[in-house]
Request: fold
Amino acid sequence: VGAQGDLASRTLVLESKRFYLDVKENQRGRFIKIAEISADGRKNQILMTFSTAALFSQNLIQFIDFYRDLDSLDPENLRQGELKSEVMYKDDKKYHMDLKENARGRFLKVSETFTRGYSRFQVFIPADGMGEFQHNLGELIDEYDNGDAEEALSAPQNKHLRIENKNFYFDIKRNQQGRYMSISEVKGNFRNSILVPESGWESFRDVLDDYVKQDASALGQNFSFCHTSTLTPNTGEVEDLVKQLTN
Reply:
């Protein structure tokens, strides 16, 4: 695996805050710790794998371009909510990027949350400092990436679906046998996953597609019956039809 521990560190002073970008390595691989020290000494930090940091850096460029095109801040007419947002999913973590504004200025809130549980870690980067922040982060990724960041930028992006009261996460990963898709069902602290090798993605999709087409066809036939029937159904027939449509 190579040397473990601290590999590199950079210090940035953005407005009244200090930020530390630390490249570290453990048995699971290399990662970046982003720490924010406020003027009053409060400390916030988040952790990112190199693959996540590469996506974050790429998104950050888009946020910088968006920020440059904004009108000047009007303290008397502040915009509520987010000016721009992005969400990244990685394994069992979710990262939010939210560009916001208040009476003191504009800032980027970066939050790290776990898909199980309610732990949340976040840092606040002054909007005027996003360019310097991205420049230093990008240099560290270029210098210390062992292939994870480059692969993450070229691989399909992870996806998330919420269906009823469950969350489903689709993560593209790689091991010695090749690439595979991890599909995880998460509800509260419960998590269940299946792994689909890349060679089976098209077959997996075709099976789902067949079920969707069959279901749509069945619904179409039922609706056709409703429109063409000249009979007036009784209450029992209506209940049976509703059951067919909802099954």
User: Anything to note?
Assistant: The two ends are 53 Å apart (CA to CA). Residues 201-228 form the longest helix (28 residues).
